[in-house]
């Protein structure tokens, strides 16, 4: 799977999530009907999500805690929601370009619809997560599905889940069966999917919290460019909800990590633990990777809870520009999310960001009380700096770092 393949982000998210959601789509428990399970399995195998949806809905009509049916419904609900959101975002972008401004009412309605749908998806995943025996063998690269939403199944769709490189980075020839592996999905992948959904909902609610009227003024060429750009906080409760969702996502991510480490089998893994060798994705997994995963989740939790802050000096030096005297202070991410306010951007001041004092003034205007002089520094930026150093020294490519990041949420 290649991160730079020309497919839309929403489609990529949809395909990856769908692959994981089917972790238990067809697992049979004592309370489930074997006939319906067979039908759902066949429908998922051929990517007939409409048929899978119909079967899932029928089963849940009488068996509300049926884990298999809940996962089938999660898949179909997610697919419909992401297709609609993809269409709505395209419409909003095209309409905004033609009209010279963003239709915020339309955008908010689209995001609200997506958020409601994702809430339902998470409910179904919650039901499914209670079945520890969920498993399914599935070749997602074999699916003939219009992932990029252009109305047809084309080469981009067919390549989206194929494995194009081996562990040494050498191309895998077309037609080689290694390009279309069969994965065995299990219970840890359900938590992976719940984390994915939680982070998406958090992003949606952060966008919905602010009024972007000033952005329209900036985009409208007929207006004189404003000196200040203010993103007005219209719904502070949505920022606080986003904070809760981020914490939920981090919890689910760590739950999946711990579930993977407990696995004792070793057969066609989606995300293997360091002891498992049977996996198709050409990304080495060792104890250091899992340790880093745990550390980053812990770092992010402390940031969101306001126990630690981001050092502005360390953050500034992560970029390509090397500051002789980087701005000081810390960003209190926890306060940003628990005590949200308007965001004020000095557009003229951005041109003077080279100066330390100007940068600090900008940060103070933008972040208000969330920009503080002293705070316990988060180790997260030092970890990112170490990763950047490995890329700069040629020890590992940026592409591989991004693939790890997306793969592990």
Brief description of this entry?
The protein is mainly alpha-helical and 409 residues long. The protein is built from 15 helices and eight strands.
Strand percentage lies at 5-15%
Shape: globular
Please count the helical segments.
15
Q: What is the helix content?
A: 40-55%
Low-confidence spans: pLDDT under 50, at least 5 residues? 1-37
Quickly give the structural class: mainly alpha
Distance between the termini: 15 Å
Q: Mean of the pLDDT scores?
A: 80
Order of helices and strands: HHHHHEHEHEHEHHEHEHEHEHH
Rounded to an integer in angstroms, the radius of gyration calculated over CA atoms is: 23 Å
Give, in spatial order, the strands making up the sheet with the most strands: 3-4-7
Taking the sheet with the most strands, its summary is: 3 strands, antiparallel
Number of strands: 8
Keywords:
409 residues; mainly alpha; three-stranded antiparallel β-sheet; 8 strands; globular; disordered N terminus
Question: How are the secondary structure elements laid out?
Answer:
Elements: H1 9-21, H2 34-45, H3 49-60, H4 67-99, H5 104-129, E1 135-138, H6 155-159, E2 183-186, H7 187-208, E3 210-211, H8 213-219, E4 228-233, H9 236-262, H10 287-304, E5 310-311, H11 312-316, E6 330-331, H12 333-338, E7 343-346, H13 356-367, E8 371-372, H14 380-392, H15 398-407
Antiparallel strand pairs: 1-2, 3-4, 4-7, 5-6, 6-8
